Amino acid sequence: MPSDKYPLLRLTRKGHSFFDLISEFGKSEDSRWDRAFHRLCSLMRKMAAQNVVIEQIEDYSPNLREEKAALDTYYGKDIKFEVFRFTFLLANISTLAAVGDLKNRSFLASATLINFTDQNDRWHSYLQEAIVCRPQISGRLLLNNYVHIRNDFNCSVNFSKKETRSFKINGTFFCQQNAVTSVCAHASLCMLINNMNAQKMITTEWINKILEIDHIKKRVSTEGLNTEQVLKVLKNAGLEAEWHNFFDHPNIDYAQYIYRYIEGGCPSLLVFTTKYADNEEDVIEDDDIAKIPLHVVPVIGHTLNSDIWEAEAELAYNRSVPLNYRPASEWVDHFIIHDDNFGMYLCLPVDSLRKITLPKYDPTLRAYLAIVVTPITIQTSALQAEWAGAALIRKLLKEIRDDKVDLGIWLERLADKSIPMIIRTMLMNKKNYKKHLEKEKDFKGNCFTTSEVSAVTQHLPSHFWLSEITIPDLYTANKHKILDFIYPCDKPPDGIIEKEIPHRWIQIRLPGVCYFNGEPPNVIPLTVKSHFPLYRHEKDSKVPEW
User: Fold this and answer.
1) Per the domain annotation, does 310 fall within a domain?
2) Domain of 484, in residue numbers
């Protein structure tokens, strides 16, 4: 296809096949490469894309030159290398010139496709990058669909030989491994880091330089990157991280672990097993774990189903559950992920990687490791903070009642042991928590005064665990909480947890009053005396909820 054909405007509305588009521009002989491109096109169909602008890029950017140089080095020759860019439009236009007048909201996605040849001159194809807006219908975001890790990305499209239109897309960055100089861990690291910082984008070759992979003396392993390499990359990107191995500690539920971070805006890399290479019926030994194939994906959000039956029913029909509480993660039905093999904005059912068996007996398709990016070093686990809230709150309510103090209707309901507590725990920073108290009103329309917000927040650390405690119907119907329980995140374990938590909690905000830990606790009255909205990051403020 001669380059003087480009740019060109192609119709993509119903009646015009995306299958034809993919087969025309993707040259790979391997049919597996195109799942990510098909996913992109499926999203564009769902979001009613009307047109796509197609360019053949011949004036390579530094990133594209870097990518080609790496492939040339790997194969030891000047390979064939083709680059196409696809800009999908919501607007129904008939000429390329009209692109220059479009608003930002008309741009749905900008994707770069690379075709290259190997040492045998066989073609391979992959999406080198794709910036895609959040899934939406006529500008309305999807119900209960929270994409926490996203950004504003600067994009451009050449709509003539001399004219360029710059635009912004609020969405996420996606990329696909080329399986030669990059693997799934490269792609996942790029997706995680670039979605956190759109102003300083990293590339797979930046990662290779950090890891001293030169494609000659040291090549990318077919087994991917190990945990130490991933952590080294994150450190060089200026990011803190903590991780949990679910094979070493299978008593920790992977979905609960990840949720307590993702709800607070901390992205995660989720590593899971695929297929055990040897006899899957055998029990694996410790030395065999390294033989299990792994895949990694970034977790960027979650979906919520407020109609889930199991969370409450299990407590009602099985009364052996300790402390009679349920974590809010029980209403999370999917994690939103990017999978470089299958595409962007995919919903991973949380139960799909859960197993009731131990890893050594059933190693296939289960959560193996989570690496979470955190703003500071975490020493106190979210589980301890949540357990502390569950253990202390009803004890506190009993003490208040024993002192002949009226609990009020909402604390009375929370104190009722026949009603389970719901606890939503997340990593919180002081600035965001203060904004939350300043902007929201309780169910009766009352808001905190300026002096109350100052009193509640002035002695808080920069980061802490926030456990929002409520009851089922307030959580599912109103998205409201009864109280806030605040616990430190920077205290290392120093003894028995039951003895630690009475001294470690920071404060408890109840309807009408706030308790500050001390001997005796300091207490201040508050204007807000009813249930209060759950914390919502400003990025999630426009998500429609059911």
Assistant:
1) no
2) 382-540
pLDDT at 287 over 70: no
Residue pointed to by tokens 């980061």: 463
Q: Which secondary structure element, helix H or strand E, spans residue 335, and what is its range?
A: strand 332-339
| The pLDDT of residue 29 | 81
Q: What is the pLDDT of residue 280?
A: 47
Partnered with residue 522 across adjacent β-strands are 516
pLDDT at 228: 95
Cα 424 from Cα 263, distance rounded (Å): 9
Region of poorest pLDDT, from 112-116, 213-217, 415-419: 415-419
Cα(479)–Cα(392) distance, integer angstroms: 23
The number of beta carbons lying within 10 Å of the beta carbon of residue 117 is 17
Number of neighbours of residue 340 by Cβ within 10 angstroms: 29
Helix (H, G, I), strand (E, B) or coil at 317: helix
Q: At what angle do helices 450-457 and 430-439 cross, to 10 degrees?
A: 150
- State how far the Cα of 213 lies from the Cα of 207, in Å rounded to an integer: 9
Q: Three-class SS of residue 27? A: coil
Question: Rounded CA gap, 188 and 193, in Å?
Answer: 9
Q: Does position 284 have pLDDT exceeding 70, yes or no?
A: no
pLDDT the model gives residue 31: 75
For residue 317, tell me if it sits in a domain: no
| DSSP structure string for 250-292 | TTS-HHHHHHHHHTTT--EEEEEE---SS-TTSPPPGGGGGGS
The model's pTM is: 0.94
- Judge whether 377 lies within some domain: no
Flag whether 454 is in a domain: yes
Whether the bond into 488 is cis, omega within 30 of 0: no
- Asked whether 233 and 183 are in contact (CB, 8 A), the reply is no
CB 88 within 8 A of CB 109: yes
**Torsions phi, psi for 222 (to 5 deg):** -65, -15
Residue pLDDT, tens place only, 307-321: 999 988 888 887 666
The DSSP-derived string for 429-455 is EHHHHHHHHHH---TTS----HHHHHH
Give the angle subtended at the CA of 483 by the CAs of 512 and 268, to the nearest 5°: 150
Residue 80 has pLDDT above 90, yes or no: yes
In the structure, what pLDDT confidence band is assigned to residue 194 with cuts at 50, 70 and 90? very high
Question: How many domains in the chain?
Answer: 2
Which of 183, 200, 234 is at the close of a domain? 183
Phi and psi torsions of 307, nearest 5°: -105, 10
- Taking only the tens place, the pLDDT of each residue in 339-398 is 999 999 999 999 999 988 888 888 889 999 999 999 999 999 999 999 999 989 988 888
In sequence order, which residues have a C-beta less than 8 Å from that of residue 81 and are 6 or more positions away? 68, 71, 114, 115, 116, 117
| Closest CA relative to residue 343, chosen from 156, 178, 174, 479 | 174
The 3-class SS string of 372-425 reads: EEECCCCCCCHHHHHHHHHHHHHHHHHHHHHCCCCCHHHHHHHHCCCCCEEEEE
